[in-house]
């Protein structure tokens, strides 16, 4: 970050794919933490690739500044030098979501998205389920799944999106995007909000009010039937998604506060040096392996009066 008077400069270079989401969180800190009016100089000239989760995070950061009136006129966005990357940002509706940018010319013909979904915002009960349905359809366009699996994945994404609406306490809402990568046999879905984060959300439920560590909060949220609002949710979205991806060879990454937890084909939990206001959830599935939820549901623990944990 460089700040001079009221100008904040942010440079994004190289690739921000699933494996480099932590770098995206770190490099976007100047935008995520800014709390005073400033001109923004966002230099994307050296950007080679940015995945759907990183796009959702960047969009959320800039939209927050717009909504809170922190963008001073005279700011600048330098587009990627790579023509393909610049075109990709347009296809993912990155510029369309920013009122401060205005109309950006496009030199390509838009078609109905297949195997990807542009970045979109959802803010309440009327649209979170529409976004979840859209993300599910995008995944189904690239990944082998039967009707049962598709319905189950829809339930998972419904709950992930509803978590933003019900638990994030953010006036901005959430941002989501999806992108298939056929050559790598991967499909990524990103859902981001800049709300209170998982730990503060769980603390609304007295059972989890004493959790003081973000990693423990995320790991708790990944357990079946854990929620800050047990009167509303079943709390199986994150846990079922993790088990589904483990069978598929994919991964679920959850980032909130200073906590980072990865589940699925690999399991990893760590505290990070850089905090994230809100929650980032990235789902990455393999498209060369089927997604089958039936085995997952059979393995879910049965509720017990003494052991039941009130859902996520």
Question: Overview of this structure, please?
Answer:
- With 312 residues, this protein is α/β, with parallel strands linked by helices.
- It folds into 2 domains: 1-102, STAS domain (Transcription Regulator spoIIAA, 2-Layer Sandwich); 114-312, 2-Layer Sandwich (Heat Shock Protein 90), CATH 3.30.565.10.
- It has 10 helices and 11 strands.
- Strands 7-8-9-11-10 form a 5-stranded antiparallel sheet, with helices on both faces. Strands 1-2-4-6 form a 4-stranded mixed sheet, with no helix packed on it.
- A hairpin with a 4-residue loop joins strand 8 and strand 9 (186-193).
- Helix 5 (128-140) runs antiparallel to helix 6 (147-167) and helix 6 (147-167) packs across helix 9.
The total of helices stands at 10
Q: What is the third-level CATH name, the topology of the largest domain?
A: Heat Shock Protein 90
Strand order of the largest sheet: 7-8-9-11-10
Largest sheet: 5 strands, antiparallel
CATH class of the largest domain: Alpha Beta
Number of domains: 2
Write the layout of secondary structure elements.
Elements: E1 2-4, E2 7-11, E3 14-16, H1 21-27, H2 29-33, E4 39-43, E5 47-50, H3 52-67, E6 76-78, H4 83-91, E7 116-122, H5 128-140, H6 147-167, E8 174-181, E9 186-193, H7 198-202, H8 214-221, H9 237-248, E10 251-264, E11 268-286, H10 294-299
Parallel strand pairs: 2-4, 3-5, 4-6
Antiparallel strand pairs: 1-2, 7-8, 8-9, 9-11, 10-11
């Amino acid at each position: 970050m460089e700040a001079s008077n009221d100008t904040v400069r942010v440079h994004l270079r190289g690739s921000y794919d699933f494996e480099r989401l932590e770098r995206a969180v770190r490099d976007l800190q100047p935008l995520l933490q800014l709390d005073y009016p400033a001109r923004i100089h966002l230099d994307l000239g050296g950007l080679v690739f940015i995945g759907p989760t990183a796009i959702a995070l960047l969009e959320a950061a800039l939209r927050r500044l717009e909504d809170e009136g922190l963008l001073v006129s005279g700011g600048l966005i330098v587009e990627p030098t790579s023509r393909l990357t610049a075109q990709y940002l347009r296809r993912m509706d990155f510029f369309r979501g920013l009122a401060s940018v205005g109309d950006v010319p496009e030199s390509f013909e838009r078609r109905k998205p297949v195997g990807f979904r542009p970045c979109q915002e959802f803010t309440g009960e009327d649209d979170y389920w529409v976004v979840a349905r859209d993300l599910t359809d995008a995944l189904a366009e690239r990944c082998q799944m039967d009707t049962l699996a598709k319905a189950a994945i829809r339930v998972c994404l419904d709950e992930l999106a509803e978590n933003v609406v019900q638990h994030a306490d953010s006036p901005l809402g959430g941002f989501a995007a999806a992108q298939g990568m056929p050559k790598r046999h991967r499909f990524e879905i990103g859902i981001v909000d800049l709300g209170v984060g998982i730990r503060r959300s769980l603390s609304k439920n007295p059972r989890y009010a004493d959790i003081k560590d973000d990693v423990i909060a995320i790991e708790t949220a990944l357990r079946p039937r854990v929620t800050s609002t047990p009167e509303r949710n079943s709390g199986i979205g994150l846990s079922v998604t993790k088990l589904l991806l483990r069978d598929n060879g994919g991964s679920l990454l959850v980032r909130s506060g200073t906590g980072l937890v990865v589940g699925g084909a690999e399991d990893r939990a760590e505290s990070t040096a850089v905090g994230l206001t809100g929650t980032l959830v990235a789902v990455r599935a393999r498209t060369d392996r089927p997604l089958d939820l039936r085995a997952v549901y059979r393995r879910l623990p049965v509720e017990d009066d003494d052991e039941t944990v009130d859902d996520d």
